[in-house]
Fold these 2 entries.
Entry 1:
Amino acid sequence: MNQRDIAVVSVSGGLDSCVTAAIANLKYDIALLHVNYGQRTERRELQAFNDIADFYGVEKRLVIDFRHLAEIGNSSLTDYSMEVSKADLENEEIPSSYVPFRNANILTAAGSWAETLNAKAIFIGAVFEDSSGYPDCRPDFFKAFEYAMDLGTKPETKIKIETPIIHMTKSEIIKKGIELGAPLHLTWSCYQNEDESCGVCDSCALRLRGFQQLGIEDPIPYKVRPNYLK
């Protein structure tokens, strides 16, 4: 059996990154990267990351502490004086949950590790559907970052940034995950709870609506499951 190239996959523990890891695993020997940054659900997300890594039998895993993102603040995910906004799926403004330039921070760590591992790609589960709220989810951002990474690494280092689900809707991502046998039951998406998902934050709402559009019950626990198809 031929040895496969290595890809670093950023895995938050959420649904999108889990499906992204499943896609990367089709072609690459995956190395999984997780970032703790003082978010409200840090412990639960780390558990989900390790559960996903265990599911795929991944030995190469790296957990990084980016506590500076919490110290910088200005996000309801890290600043407890700010309220996590209730779901508004029609909102086109930047939500309070935006962590300033988080994906760039993640990609710098992934790039360093990828160069060390001689990896050929970095996978990240960004979704363009979220880009109206999160500017660091735009395709142009990843294209520009790949160019910057090419300039800032050794001449022989060639790493492609892969965003395989960036143009998918949440329901399409869920469907792809089911097709690939991804462990969606091990993932965690809630912005504010670590025991039962709240069901009312933006992340829960997007996830629940995706499952509801497919007529499938989300396998993780919720305190409430509003109907987001109305």
Entry 2:
Amino acid sequence: MKERKRKIWWYVLNDYVAAVAAWYCLFLFRKTFIEANPFNFKLPFSDNNFWVAILIVPELWLLFHYLTGTYFDLYKKSRLQELGKTLVVSFFGSIIIFFILLLDDYVRRYSDYYLTFFVLFGFQFLFTAAGRTLILNALKQNIRKGKVGFGTLMIGSSSRANELYEALKSKEESFGFHFVGYLELNGSPRNTLTSELKELGKLTDLEKVLEQNTEIEEVIIAIESSEHPQLNDILTRLADRNVTIRIIPDMYDILSGTVKLNHVIGEGFIEIPPTLLNEWERITKRWFDVIASALALFVTLPLSAYIAFRIWWTDKGPVFYTQERLGQYGKPFRIIKFRSMYLNAETNGPQLTSENDHRITPIGKFIRKYRIDEFPQFINVLKGEMSIVGPRAERKYFADQIIKVAPYYRHVFKVQPGITSLGMVKYGYASTVQEMVKRLKYDIIYMENMNIMMDLKIMVYTVLTIVYGRGK
């Protein structure tokens, strides 16, 4: 895994060099064809503006690529999707750089602006895409040769599981499945899998196995039709895990069109990715979150400064309050809020807030009513720990209690938690675990219908909640 992470720097270096090369070509183009200077290779090196831009522009491109989720496991990338993504990011990034650095440049006619933009966009896309394609081709070859693979767990030990394993093993090219073992379903018959793979336990041991084998990235569910009633239990247990789930389909699944063929010569699986959004939706949501959070922090700065002073003036204690919450895939993070309670408010252990809670300060009642206490969470959004809209982030203490009552709560960990949510808009704060479970249905509804328009609607309702002071 560490070696795979180091490969990301290949991408970073390629993108940096591509940005430098594209800007160099644009500079020569402008001096030669737009400003009509004689073509001279020494020209860029004697121009101060060139050096200033060459220090700024590549960093801007690396920021654009980072914010669009480019720098993650290269071995998981689709070359075709990456080409399309590079095209879109190059286009919109070129627009931003054009308006920041090029709009006030010298032109002889208005059409020179269009030429400048398309030359920048063309070179940027060409150089970036060419380098990325070469890198991904080399890495895909490592997968085919079996040099690199993904830790894979097989669930099931029936004849279907054995047939799949034998089929994958017989292929001349590897598809990246490095099996660490299998889990036997209670009562499922044993066969030759036992001699080929290590038995890691029963289905009830799934969580323990995943915690002990952190290299597992893929889970293949190979069960008989008679074992399908256990499928829902398996998917619920895997809902809060950052693993790709692959299910061997029945003929009904194939005819209904739910089977995704990952390789032209490979096996057909029903694939359940670890996130509910596809790559383009994740990019759009992330850009929206970053821009909206930066704007919100700037606009609310005067009010936040006043609230911070009032909180400090109340008891001379800290202005901010941080607390460990569970994020995407159950990963802990420190949520940031304006402090609304007196110091040492939870000396008796974790407690949910209630009406007329004596632990809340006078200024705390005001900021909770208008949700101002949650303004600092925009920092969590910028850090990538939260989204503006998503299920409420809970403490592990209460999450464990909810799971005992509603095991399907694990599904909320598939997405990033949010500052606001459909559950908060429709139900509001919960003062008991039973109320948390009631609110949960709205979070599940949101996850099944999440998109940018849904986020905008929830944000509008949240603003109305703030304006009318419907919080508590």
